[in-house]
């Protein structure tokens, strides 16, 4: 009888310990997730500025594009192509 009580007592302690660890762990995970979410929202607020590419008119976040004087491009390729295009039209006109 004493052994059964001892074993059930140990099992109870193990279960309590497991529950305690589980709670601590999930609390920590929630804390990390909350921080990550906070970080994300503050980041998206900064990034939210969307602009259209002068060449292809695709809308992308400002920080992913390229600025050339007053114009905005989705990539350096389109910046080059736009400059090339401007040069060509200018040559034709003159
Ligand atoms: Zn483009």
Structural write-up:
The chain is of the alpha+beta class. The chain folds into two domains: about 50 residues; about 45 residues, no CATH class. About 70% of the residues lie in helices and about 15% in strands. A hairpin with a 2-residue loop joins strand 3 and strand 4. The termini are far apart. The model has no long low-confidence stretch (mean pLDDT about 85). Bound molecules: zinc ion.
Bound molecules: zinc ion
Label the structural class: alpha+beta
Low-confidence stretches: none
Strand sequence of the main sheet, in spatial order? Answer: 1-2
Largest sheet: 2 strands, antiparallel
Shape: rod-shaped
Helix content: 55-70%
Output mean pLDDT: 87
Percent strand equals 5-15%
User: What does the radius of gyration come to?
Assistant: 31 Å
Number of strands: 4
Count of domains:
2
H/I helix tally: 2
Q: Roughly how many Å apart are the termini?
A: 107 Å
Q: Give the H and E element order.
A: HEEEEH
What's the topology here?
Elements (H helix, E strand, L loop, with lengths): L1 H46 L2 E3 L6 E3 L4 E3 L2 E3 L2 H18 L1
Antiparallel strand pairs: 1-2, 3-4
The protein binds zinc ion.
The site of zinc ion has 7 residues, from loops.
Give short descriptive properties of this protein.
94 residues; 2 domains; alpha+beta; rod-shaped; 13% strand; two-stranded antiparallel sheet; binds zinc ion
């Amino acid at each position: 009888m004493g052994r059964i009580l001892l074993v059930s007592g140990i099992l109870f302690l193990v279960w309590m310990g497991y529950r305690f660890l589980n709670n601590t762990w999930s609390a920590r995970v929630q804390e990390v997730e909350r921080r990550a979410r906070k970080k994300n929202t503050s980041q998206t607020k900064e990034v939210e500025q969307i602009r259209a590419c002068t060449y292809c008119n695709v809308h992308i976040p400002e920080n992913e594009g390229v600025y050339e004087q007053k114009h905005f491009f989705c990539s350096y390729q389109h910046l080059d192509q736009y400059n090339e295009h401007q040069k060509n039209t200018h040559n034709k006109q003159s």
